[in-house]
Specification:
It is built from eight helices and ten strands. It is an alpha/beta fold and 232 residues long. The chain has two domains: 107 residues, 3-Layer(aba) Sandwich (Cobalt-precorrin-4 Transmethylase, domain 1); 106 residues, Methyltransferase, Cobalt-precorrin-4 Transmethylase, Domain 2 (2-Layer Sandwich), CATH 3.30.950.10. Bound molecules: S-adenosylmethionine (SAM).
Length: 232
């Protein structure tokens, strides 16, 4: 372990992981980078503003939404060119995993700038590790497309993948997903990891049809990581 704390480097993009529901999950290094950087590029400045307030951090915020991402990447690159130390955060978790961070990272690397990870919370890792399905081999899918036909095709294409499948899903589509999985993966073990790191964290385990029956009886809220065990 390197206990030394080198100063932040000019012209570097720091990918700072932030809590996915439990404020205690921010790392000491994340706090230092947020305190010492020149500017924080945030997915939602209001959301990040609350996090910063909680830790008494006052810092200029630059917003980058999915819609103006291309333009914001340019602004971030221009600031890197000027030598700024930039912390990039998303609403929750590790920037770059199923969020707009990926595009900024690609742009920064293509422009020749240094990108450093400041690792921490990530819903994928939290759900997979506590889910109880095999972790030696897994395939991260992220969000499925929204359109029914495309979802079905995507799920079908995943049938032959070895290892545990890991998906992200919103509460609005979890029932739809379980109906689709009952058709495509009827015999597989599924884990719904809900509200990870929060007060009402819950792991629901069963075959897709069993879980569908559970959530139809008791509507469940919150964000989900959905794990699908390997085929037999
Ligand atoms: N970059 C983030 C990460 O490192 O996990 C993920 C961003 S993605 C836009 C948001 C999705 O992550 C949610 O829709 C949900 O599927 C999952 N997620 C985030 N926080 C979660 C939590 N506390 N419990 C379960 N799933 C969560």
């Amino acid at each position: 372990m390197d206990a030394q704390l080198p100063p932040l480097q000019p012209g570097t993009l720091y990918l700072v992981a932030t809590p996915i529901g439990n404020l205690e999950d921010i790392t000491l290094r994340a706090l230092r980078v947020l305190r010492e950087c020149d500017v924080i590029a945030a997915e939602d400045t209001r959301h990040t503003g609350q996090l910063l307030k909680r830790f008494d951090i006052v810092k200029p915020l630059l917003s980058y939404f999915q819609f103006n991402e291309a333009r914001r990447s340019e602004e971030i690159i221009e600031r890197l060119r000027r030598g700024d130390k930039i912390a990039l955060v998303t609403d929750a978790g590790s920037p770059g995993i199923s969020d707009p961070g990926e595009r900024v990272v690609k742009a920064a690397i293509a422009a020749g700038y240094r990108v450093e990870s400041v690792p921490g919370p990530c819903a994928l890792v939290a759900g997979l590790t506590a889910g109880g399905l095999p972790t030696d081999e897994f395939h991260f899918v992220g969000f499925l497309p929204h359109k029914s036909g495309q979802r079905r095709n995507k799920l079908e294409s995943l049938k032959t993948i070895r290892g545990t499948l890991v998906l992200y899903e919103s509460p609005y589509r979890i029932e739809k997903l379980l109906i689709e999985m009952s058709a495509v993966f009827p015999g597989r073990k599924v884990v719904l990891a809900r509200e990870l790191t929060k007060k009402f964290e819950e792991f629901l385990r069963g075959k897709p049809a069993e879980l569908l029956a559970v959530i139809q009886k008791r509507p469940v809220r919150g964000e989900f990581v959905v794990l699908v065990g390997p085929g037999g």
